[in-house]
From TrEMBL:
Record protein name field: SET domain-containing protein
Organism domain of life: Eukaryota
Origin organism lineage: Eukaryota, Fungi, Dikarya, Basidiomycota, Agaricomycotina
């Protein structure tokens, strides 16, 4: 049985409001270092394992919009001077500070201290809860789990460019990684959509391997070999576990 937090995650992602997907035969089971995606029945090759609408993507534009809405329009100029990491990590931290998502607008240490000083001027209580532990977790998540924006193009790729930027797709990164796993990334556009990125666009992971009952459903490391560096995952495990 899935932990209650995992079941709630599945309900949230697959709700009619968002239209995401976690394959029904994939169970999000508690493992030593977090959740693992386990096959509850044998899963055929070429199965879509997980998909997420771009509506839920967290990137610098989304974070800037959310923080401006929360802190007030007068803070926009100052927020625009923040780095991508500061904006996205602060956005993630505030989701931890406000676990009730209804309080969030719709739409390394030095960096954190700069942000905390700014937040303190807006609301000292928020700044008190904006801890180094929360920021380091968010920073680790961004370093190890973010995808390049080239994945949102009509010809999706994990190859970064000089103009690409990092973004996070909730639950598309739920799968553990293993070298050489045959998977495809698929970007789906509704009929009639011509923009490179649209909120109704979805990104999916398709597994081309048969997964036996009880086995992990894996993603691969793509072109980012840093994801395979055990030093990165030791740090992530000690910080996030």
């Amino acid at each position: 049985m899935e932990p209650s937090s995992a079941a709630e995650l599945r309900r949230w992602l697959t709700s009619t409001a968002y239209g995401g997907l976690i394959y029904p035969s994939v169970s999000l089971s508690q493992a030593k270092f977090g959740l693992s995606a386990i096959a509850q029945d044998a899963i055929d090759a070429d199965t879509t394992i997980v998909s997420c609408p771009c509506l839920l993507a967290i990137d610098v534009e989304c974070s800037l919009h959310a923080l401006t809405a929360l802190f007030g329009e007068l803070t926009l100029v100052d927020l625009q001077s923040w780095s991508e990491r500061q904006l996205i990590c602060t956005d993630l931290c505030l989701h931890c500070i406000f676990p009730d998502s209804s309080q969030i607008p719709d739409a390394l240490r030095y960096l954190r201290n700069t942000c905390r000083t700014f937040i303190h001027a807006v609301n000292p209580d928020w700044a008190e809860r904006y801890t180094w532990d929360k920021y380091s977790r968010a920073s680790t998540c961004l370093s190890t789990r973010a995808f390049p924006s080239t994945l949102l193009s009509r010809s999706p790729t994990l190859q970064t460019t000089s103009s690409s930027y990092p973004f996070i797709l909730p639950r598309v990164d739920i799968l553990n990684h293993s070298r050489g796993q045959p998977v495809s990334w698929c970007t789906s556009y509704p009929e009639g959509i011509t923009k490179e990125r649209d909120e109704s666009t979805t990104i999916s992971i398709i597994s081309h391997a048969t997964t036996p009952l009880g086995e992990d459903v894996f993603n691969n490391y793509g072109l980012n070999e840093r994801r395979a560096d055990p030093r990165i995952w030791f740090f992530a495990a000690t910080k996030l576990g």
